[in-house]
């Protein structure tokens, strides 16, 4: 994690290292759940410290925000363009990597401006919830 932080021009503090490790393990996580996990490892860490670090990690483009209808903002390590598959019943979030370049090229024919970001959430009911 230290190398990753340094690659983004950020100091590798113990808090940032644990925050990134927990986000990596969770895949997608909101600040409150992240705070609980970090507190287990660094008990003196405050919620304000989590917010401050998450904000700086987002500003540096190391983390991206995930907005899911009806839920708190979640965060993930930037993985490039991908689609989120979200179960409408249990809330499970999976990443689906697809040819985003194809999407950008397709929509660029309809949009004169350069596309700067592609995000997509697909809501469905996962196999665990169907059974």
TrEMBL record:
Spell out the molecular function terms from Gene Ontology: DNA-binding transcription factor activity; transcription cis-regulatory region binding; zinc ion binding
Q: Does the keyword DNA-binding apply?
A: yes
Which cofactor does this sequence's record say it needs? Answer: Mn(2+); Fe(2+); Zn(2+)
What keywords tag this UniProt record?
A: DNA-binding, Iron, Metal-binding, Repressor, Transcription, Transcription regulation, Zinc
Provide a GO biological process annotation. Answer: negative regulation of DNA-templated transcription
Q: What Pfam families does UniProt report for this protein, alphabetically?
A: FUR
Cofactor note (record): Binds 1 Mn(2+) or Fe(2+) ion per subunit. Binds 1 zinc ion per subunit.
User: Which SUPFAM superfamilies does this UniProt record tie to the protein?
Assistant: Winged helix' DNA-binding domain
Q: Does the keyword Iron apply?
A: yes
Chain positions recorded as Fe cation binding sites = 101
Give the residues the record marks as binding Zn(2+): 87, 90, 126, 129
Family affiliation = Belongs to the Fur family.
Give the protein's recorded name: Ferric uptake regulator, Fur family
Q: Which organism is it from?
A: Flexistipes sinusarabici (strain ATCC 49648 / DSM 4947 / MAS 10)
The uppermost taxa in this organism's lineage are: Bacteria, Pseudomonadati, Deferribacterota, Deferribacteres, Deferribacterales
